[in-house]
Design brief:
Largest sheet: 9 strands, mixed
Low-confidence stretches: none
Structural class: alpha+beta
Mean pLDDT: 96
Number of helices: 8
Oligomer: single chain
Order of helices and strands: EEHEEEHHEEHEHEEEEHEHEEEHE
Number of strands: 17
Shape: globular
Distance between the termini: 28 Å
Bound molecules: pyridoxal-5'-phosphate
Strand content: 25-35%
Helix content: 25-40%
Length: about 300
């Protein structure tokens, strides 16, 4: 099922893609009052499996809590709805987009009179930054846009409104000929990409900005820290000055969409040798082997699509 076809789960019912519509007066359309997730389902030798489904649903519920939205579903309800949607679309591997949004009622800024509507979309989505990116790496720039300041838009919430900032970062990068932009926080320290977290490697130590550098606490980021430490690397969550990016031996993005994508240049300065480095390769190899089911799932990161969630 490609983008634009198949079934969409909406408020408890599976409807055809073309019928999964909302009213133009829905609160979310005007004020960005939505929270969402992006997860992936992969094909493994034992059948299709969602990667870190429980963590994604937990973050969705956390985002809703921050925005005072009463989720119509609990943890297992969301997990079941997601698995049901994948099964209904007979997809072996797909991107998964659950979301909650303030729907139709009135258009005052106060969202609380509006219903919290829920939906799950799934579609086939390959390499986010192009087929070659995972191997060859991407050229990126430092964005002139900062990530949001503390106590403005909560970075820990994956909220629709945060992506207004992401679109500014992305458009600028693309128009200037780069694949992505890296945003600094309002203090000028390294934060993250428009939709991905960032790691650098310097003298065999791996660094990534901490959660208080205005990042979304990525679930892939958490996997990378676990994998890298398991491979014997030292990983430090540290505030990073911009110039450290230019001095990195290796750098890579990680996230559900980009998976693990090497960065080969930043502001036209080559990162290391200007190609994927050995630490990035080792982490990528372990990451992809786990999510494709080629290594045992020792961390419990995979949820089989065919399994009843309630049994977990
Ligand atoms: C702004 C931002 N940062 C980081 C990430 C990476 O998060 P995750 O690994 O949970 O997909 C994403 C993607 O969801 C994102 O949109």
């Amino acid at each position: 099922m490609s983008f634009g076809s198949g079934k969409v789960w909406m408020n408890g019912r599976l409807v055809d893609w073309k019928d999964a519509t909302i009213h133009v007066a829905a609160h979310v359309v005007h004020y960005g009052t939505g929270v969402f997730e992006g997860a992936r389902c992969y094909q493994t030798p034992k059948g299709s499996a969602c990667f870190r489904l429980d963590a994604h649903v937990t973050r969705l519920l956390d985002s809703a809590k921050i925005y005072r939205m009463d989720s119509p579903l609990d943890q297992s309800g969301w997990e079941s709805a997601i698995l049901e949607t994948i099964r209904a679309n007979a997809l072996k591997a797909c991107y998964i987009r659950p979301l909650m949004y303030r729907g139709y009622s009135q258009l005052g800024v106060n969202p609380m009179p509006c219903p919290v509507d829920a939906a799950v979309l799934v579609w086939e989505w390959g390499a986010y930054l192009g087929a070659d990116a995972v191997e060859k790496g991407v050229d990126v720039c430092i964005s002139s846009w900062n990530r949001t300041a503390p106590n403005t838009f909560p970075a820990a919430a994956k909220a629709t409104a945060n992506y207004a900032n992401s679109t500014l970062i992305k458009m600028e990068a693309v128009l200037d000929g780069y694949a992505e932009g890296i945003a600094l926080d309002t203090q000028g320290y390294v934060s993250e990409g428009s939709g991905q977290n960032l790691f650098i490697v310097r003298r065999n130590v791996i660094f990534t900005p901490p959660v208080h550098s205005s990042i979304l606490g990525g679930i892939t980021r958490d996997c990378i820290i676990t994998i890298a430490r398991g491979l014997g690397y030292e990983v430090r969550e540290e505030v990073l000055p911009r110039e450290l990016l230019y001095l990195a031996d290796e750098a890579f993005f990680c996230g559900t969409a980009v998976e693990v994508t090497p960065i080969r240049s930043i502001d036209k300065i080559p990162v290391g040798e200007g190609a994927r480095g050995p630490v990035t390769s080792a982490i990528q190899a372990r990451f992809f082997a786990i999510l494709r089911g080629e290594l045992p799932d020792t961390h419990g990161w995979l949820t089989p699509v065919e399994s009843p969630v309630a049994a977990r």
